[in-house]
Amino acid sequence: MIALGAVSAVWLGVGVLMTVASNDANSEGRAQRHQIFAAGGSCVASPSFAERCAELQRSGERAGRLGDIALGSYILSGLLATGAVTYALWPRKSAQGSTALLVLPDPRVQGVSVVMVNAW
Predict the structure, then answer these.
(1) pLDDT single digits (tens) 21-38
(2) I need a labelling partner for 51 at 20 to 30 A (CA). Which of 6, 44, 70, 102 fits?
(3) Nearest to 66 by CA among 6, 12, 98, 25
(4) Where do runs of H (alpha helix) occur along the chain?
(5) Beta carbons of 78 and 11 less than 8 angstroms apart
(6) CA-CA distance, 86 to 120, in Å (whole number)?
(7) Per residue in 38-80, pLDDT tens?
C-alpha cells in the first residue's frame, strides 16, 4: 500500500511538472504568434514568415505532447492511488481456526478418558 501510494505521488509530481512545461510552451507559442502578427504577417501562405511559423508550429506540438504526458501521468497517478486505497480498505479474512482435531488418551487413576484438543 505504501509503495503504491509513493509511486502515485511520483506520477502526480510528473503530471504537475509536465503541466507547467506545457503551459510554458503555450506561453512561448502565444508570444511567437504575437510577434508574427505585430510584424504584419500571418502563417497562411506567407513565405516571408515561414521560419517563424514553423517555430510556432513546433511550440504548439511540444505543448500538446507535454499536455498529453501530463494527462497520462494524472491518470496513472489516480489509478495507483485507487489501487492503494482499495488495498487498504479491502476486507481481510479473519484468523482461521485450526482444522486439525487432536484426539489423545488421558489415563488416570479412576480410569481412561479421551481428550480432544482444537484451537479456534
Answers:
(1) 999 999 998 998 888 888
(2) 70
(3) 25
(4) 2-38, 50-89
(5) no
(6) 29
(7) 888 777 766 777 888 888 889 899 999 999 999 999 999 999 9
Beta bridge partners of residue 114, listed in sequence order: 105
- pTM recorded for the entire structure: 0.65
Please work out, in degrees rounded to the nearest 5, the angle formed at the alpha carbon of residue 22 by the alpha carbons of 80 and 41.
Answer: 160
Task: Work out whether the CA dihedral 23, 28, 32, 38 comes out positive or negative.
Answer: positive
Contact 87, 1 (CB under 8 A): yes
Structure letter (DSSP) for residue 56: H
Contacts of 1 (CB under 8 A, 6+ apart): 84, 87, 88
At which residue does the C-alpha cell 504575437 appear? 34
Whole-number percent of the chain with pLDDT over 70: 92
What is the distance between the alpha carbons of residues 90 and 86, in angstroms, rounded to a whole number? 6
